[in-house]
Amino acid sequence: MSFSSLVQDLSLRDSTRRRGEASNASTIDDRASRTSHISRAMSYTSTAATSVSISGDIASQLHGGYCHPLARSWQAERQLTKSMLIYPLFISDQDDEEVLIPSLPNQYRRGVNKLIPFLEPLVHKGLRSVILFGVPMRPGTKDALGTAADDPEGPVIRTISLLRQRFPHLYIVVDVCLCEYTSHGHCGILRDDGSLNNQLSVDRISDVAIAYAKAGAHCVAPSDMNDGRIRAIKLKLIEEGIVHSVTLMSYAAKFSGCLYGPFRDAAGSAPSFGDRRCYQLPPGGRGLARRAIVRDINEGADIIMVKPASQYLDIISDAKDLGKDLPIAAYQVSGEFAMIHAAAKAGVFDLKAMVFESTEGILRAGATIVISYFTPEFLDWLDN
């Protein structure tokens, strides 16, 4: 019997019962009787409704599992913690520089003399890891081979040493690429026709990675997307006898697109001609991404990264499926960060709510590490 039929049947029985009652009942008795009927009707209706709602499967009743804030947090397969976060830092070769990046809200390019005062309160709040991007600003520093990338007096190697001394428990990741250091702004060494020379680029980039590792970086992360660079770096780590103490994080699935603009403003790494579509993945290339992930796993990557994050949640999920036994990192890139800020400023949504929602989506897709410009805010929000 349907719920509406049950209610109609109940109303008919109540009406018949009322007509059969003694006509000389007192006003008080009438009121008591009506109250009793209403009570029984409500109880019967409630029972009937419950019977209808669970007639198929009692497991359909889900609300109780997330009615409380703590219970809702328990529904997440991965809960965001401070140890999952890596904070990007732009390190200038101007030691006293501290310049706001206009297209990257609340983010600065800093020289080594400004780093410690900035990082000290963040480390105190629980900052566990940073990723370093060197930014040469001095005239004449850039050249066709990116020779300044592994300069012992350059910003990255000096910063590694400084952070190891001042914050011994801070985990230091270093981006390995040539685009910030080359005069042409591309991620390797070029042929005469302007295309990438993959072999020379891999040789150079693997040398830079080893220099960072020997300087004390805990993790090297090549972002150039040249074929074979993971294997080359792994072999050189073995040759140097330090493979046991250096993590190799691969930007395995790094897609080309328009979400890197603020980063290029910060790092001064925009190509002087052309673009990077021939070595970064095309946005629709899911199969290519899967092949790149498998390749880099087989070449010895310890961590797989997907970049950008929010538009590529399916790729994060694929990475977790293909690399079941590896940590999966996702980089919420500068364009994603800037868009969230712009929309929040326009009143589209609350900033904090959207930051959590977007990051939880990244975790839900399969990431266990998130590189995020929102890390300083998370250090406060996660405490509260």
Descriptive report:
With 384 residues, this protein is α/β, with parallel strands linked by helices. It has 13 helices and ten strands. The protein has helices spanning 3-19, 27-53, 69-74, 112-125, 155-166, 198-215, 229-239, 261-267, 286-298, 313-322, 334-345, 351-365, 375-381, and strands at residues 85-92, 98-100, 108-110, 129-135, 171-176, 219-222, 247-254, 303-307, 328-331, 369-371. Helix 7 (229-239) links the parallel strand 6 and strand 7. 5-aminolevulinate 1 binds at residues 264, 276.
Termini gap: 51 Å
How many strands? 10
CATH topology of the largest domain: TIM Barrel
How many helix segments?
A: 13
Whole-number radius of gyration?
30 Å
**Into how many domains do the coordinates divide?**
2
Which regions contain 5 or more consecutive residues with pLDDT less than 50? none
| Overall CATH class of the largest domain | Alpha Beta
Shape: globular
Largest sheet, strands/sense/barrel: 8 strands, parallel, barrel
The spatial strand order of the largest sheet comes to: 1-4-5-6-7-8-9-10
Helices and strands, in order, run as HHHEEEHEHEHEHEHHEHEHHEH
Proportion of strand residues: 5-15%
Helix content: 40-55%
**Fourth-level CATH superfamily of the largest domain:** Aldolase class I
Query: Judging by the overall fold, what is the CATH architecture of the largest domain?
Result: Alpha-Beta Barrel
Mean pLDDT: 87
Keywords: Heme biosynthesis, Lyase, Metal-binding, Porphyrin biosynthesis, Zinc
Function: Catalyzes an early step in the biosynthesis of tetrapyrroles. Binds two molecules of 5-aminolevulinate per subunit, each at a distinct site, and catalyzes their condensation to form porphobilinogen.
InterPro entries: ALAD, ALAD_AS, Aldolase_TIM
EC number: 4.2.1.24
